[in-house]
Structures are given as C-alpha cells and as structure tokens.
Amino acid sequence: MRLEEYADLARPSDRLILLLVLDGLGGLPLEPGGRTELESALTPNLDELAREAVLGLHEPVGAGITPGSGPGHLALFGYDPLTYRIGRGVLEALGVDFPLEAGDIAARGNFCTVDQAGVVVDRRAGRISTEEAERLADRLGGIEVPGARVFVRAVKEHRFLLVLRPERRSEGPDAADVADTDPGRRGAPPLDVAARSIEARSTATMVGEWVEAARESLAGEPAANMVLLRGFSRLPTWPRFPDIFGMRAFAAAAYPMYRGVARLVGMDAVAVGEEPEALAAALEGAAAEYDFVFLHFKPPDKAGEDGDFDRKVAVIEQADAIVPRLLEAGPDVVLVTGDHSTPALLRSHSWHPVPYLLWGGAARGRGARGFGEEECREACDGLRLGRDLMPLAVAAAGRLGKYGA
Known about the structure:
Alkaline Phosphatase, subunit A; 8-stranded mixed β-sheet; 5-stranded antiparallel β-sheet
C-alpha cells in the first residue's frame, strides 16, 4: 500500500503510541553460539513486556542492505527508504534548526584526523568536544567560495553541517548529486569531490574549493586537521506523518540528526540530555498533548561502533531501567526496536535483522521468555520490513479503519 493511502484509513483514538528506538540495537555474539549484546544484557522490564508482546525481526531497508541512520528511522516512521531518499545533510540542518531555503545544498561533515601522507587515521578526530567543533566551525564558516554563500555549524562532538547557498539556484533534482568524500574507513585518503550528474558539476566545483581551503585552515590542528563530507541533499516535499496517520507527533533526541529526520516528516522535536531519564521526562511532558511520541537513545550505537561489547550491554541495561517510568506515563501501545544493527564485533552498522517488541492495544504475543534476537527469531512468522512496523503499531492502537467494502 502506498504511504498516502493510510490517510484514508486513519481513525481518531485516545490511545497513545510510544516508539522507543535503541539506536543500533541489533548485535552479534563475539563467538559462535554465544549471546548478542541484547541477549547478554539484564533486561527484566523489557523481558516482562516481551511476555505479552508481539516479537519479531525487521530489515530496515531490505535483505543484505546495511542502512544508514536516516533510512533506518524513515522506515520506522512508515516511509519506504527506497522511495523516500534524503541525504544526511538536510537531516543535520533540520536537527540544528538551520533555516534551509529552497535551493540550499546541505552536507553532513566530520572533523577527522589525517597523517602526513593525507591518509585518514581517525574518521571522528578522537570525538573532539562540541566546544572544540564550534571553534573550528566558526573558522571554516569564514571561507568564501565564488558563486555561493557558505554556512558552517557545529552539530555535536566531531560532526558539523555545511550549507551552500548558490547565487544561481537550480530547480533541477540533481544539483546536490555530489559524491561523498568520506571513504568510510581508516587507512584511506579522503575521496575527491566529484559530481555524479552534469547538473551537479558547479556544486562539486564549489565544494572542492571549500574543501581545499578547509584543509589549509586546519593543517595545524592536533586532531581535527581535515574534513569528510557526505549526504549532500536539498529539502524534499514529502507527505507528513501527522497527515498520514492522523496523529499529533512528538520527538525527543539528544543528537540533532534524529530531531532532523523527525522534523522532516512533520513531528515536533526537542533536544534532551543523553541519559535515559531525560527521555522519560520528555514523554511525561508530552503524553497529554500528543498521540505519538518518538524517543531516541543513542548510546548502544556508539558503543557498537567503538567495538565495546560490554559497554553496549551496559547501556541497554540503562535503557531497560527506565521502562517502568515510561509505562507510568501512560502509553497504550509501545514499540521498542532499533533503526539498524551495530554489532560490536563489526564496529559498524550491519545488514543483520533488528529485534522488535510491540506491546499493548490489540497486540497479543506468545508468552516469550524475554527480549533478544533468538526469542524474536522463534516468535516471528518471518522477517518484516521496517516500514511495516508503524502501521502495525497504529493498528494495535485502533487507529486504522477497514480497507474497502
């Protein structure tokens, strides 16, 4: 079913839906036959929900595809990420409340560390502080390139936003079709700035001049001595989540990108602290005013990318500890899952299916022993696509009517 068609089925209800995303939740055992991070964690509260919940596994995009955070979250909101494509740049811009204009071209940036040969030795520049990134972003924002105004904003830690506002704006769809300069790994130099379409050639030229100037400006920095860019994009015109499902929607996240993807589809979004208790407080404040609340918890993904199995276990346990407080806020339907898997074994996002738990409303489970990959594998009738989970949650809340006569 096309996304817009759900609007014809949407029905009012007083049931509140909570989507709790434990970023990078899915994992792998360190040894064959062992337990994943989620299975190793002590999660009595999620296990209790699992006994009454529908469990399963979902593929955020499709079989064998490793998703980025943007596509993974769009899928959880009900959007097919193969149809609704957006680069990371727009999401970062919306996340930090940058006033994007039609024709602006945005890119997500990383401050990184390169050696004397120009090879990337740390894609995140040692995760420099946000304060340090602000200092460097102010400097790089002063770089001028012919044909466009340049804006640079610090985002969080090593992340920054680059926006080009061309003097001559193209209305065509491909002006932002510029390839990433991030090689995606250590041990390789930054990639050259390259246009992937004829229409993007002028954009690539401006970006290339800015990158060379940034390289010179950062040359003396001890850690953040180069930049990597990805996700070049412009604002799209998409159906809005509140119009599709007939729900007033709210989002709370510590990291700007996740607020950005929520705002992109029409949700109200606020910044919160990284600790789980901040998410519980956000739900308590929003429960009376909204029909749908999305809470984002980043630490499992960070621990997975750092290859720290034990820390990922510990932060999953921290998230489990706030589940009773979340339930006290009164959600009628709760969906707990991740936007992708980030196994500590691989130190990166992966294509492996992600466990999910759907509790409450008309959702009825099979008395599972707990919440983990193996339990979800045994409980489900087959893999689902990530985009199917939101309609299931909306249906469980009694918010979807009958299709056809």
